[in-house]
Design a protein that fits this description.
- The protein has 3 domains: 4-85, Winged helix-like DNA-binding domain superfamily/Winged helix DNA-binding domain (Arc Repressor Mutant, subunit A); 90-170 and 276-299, D-Maltodextrin-Binding Protein, domain 2, CATH 3.40.190.10; 171-273, D-Maltodextrin-Binding Protein, domain 2 (3-Layer(aba) Sandwich), CATH 3.40.190.
- Helix content is 40%, strand content 21%.
- The chain has helices at residues 4-16, 19-26, 30-44, 60-86, 100-115, 132-140, 179-184, 211-222, 236-244, 289-299, and strands at 49-52, 55-58, 93-98, 124-129, 146-152, 163-177, 202-205, 228-232, 250-253, 265-267, 274-282.
- The strands form 3 sheets. Strands 3, 4, 5, 6, 9, 10 and 11 form a 7-stranded mixed beta sheet that branches. It has a two-stranded antiparallel ribbon with strand order 1-2. A two-stranded parallel sheet has the order 7-8.
Amino acid sequence: MLDVRRLRILQHLAAYGTVAATAEALHLTPPAVSQHLAALQKEAGMPVVEKQGRTLRLTAAGELLVAHAEIILAELAAAESGLAALRSDRHGIVRITAFPSAARALIAPLWDRLADTDAIPALSLRLSVQEPDEALDELRKRSTDLALVHSYTVLPRSFPATCEQAALMEEPVLLALHPHQADALGLAAGQPADLSRTAHLPWLTPGPETSCYEMIQRACGAAGFVPDIRTRSSDFSVLTALVAAGAGAALVPRMALPDATASLSLHPLVHPISRTIFTVNRAGTGKHPDLRRILELLHDPATAPNTTNSAPRD
């Protein structure tokens, strides 16, 4: 009989990569983790891990067990969620990992809603700000309960098979120019822009470690040019401030724009690019009352920012 606790340890080893990191995540000692893995190998009747240099890697049997462990742990999570739902007076902590503009525009308002204890029972949030790839990794490692990630029309994103995802909203990507640059291109405020006409401009982009950077590379490549990047910053408030100062052009998702955009000339694209925001949670956990409440608030049209197909602000 396979021990579910040991399957959980093997699943964590697959996610964290080392015995030491697995032990830390599970609040165990490394020798205890090694003992559980040895016991699991006896239960399986064959090796589930093997040494590769100074680290361990899963064998074919280990990979098979991890695949089944994901399903088993998802079912256990669903059972725990069902029990929690029966304890209506229980409210705890929801850990959220979100990319910066989602943290500002979508997660920050949740604190106001949750502070209204007459309408919503007490519930605490823990927020970590990470790019989508890191957020999904945190979810895989069970270091977070909910990830907010994005996907671009020119850069689709794959999701782990053991997770549940739902589209939260869609927003346009806009070309941000200094008004003088827009005038030179003959663009009135809000007029759709042909990206190919900006090939001669300096460009301001996020860092190459972000999917936003790859989106810009693909968009400019489709328009027939390689952007002349003068500044890289993963803070869109820095990029838009530089655009307002006349330093160059930038592609900015609407939700990443600053509140005041009077100094910018904003334009949808002739060949539109949009960004879809998703909520992602581990399979089986969405029915937990705490997480379900957060998901309901995020997906409530009355509380979500109106960013889909809306006219650019100027």
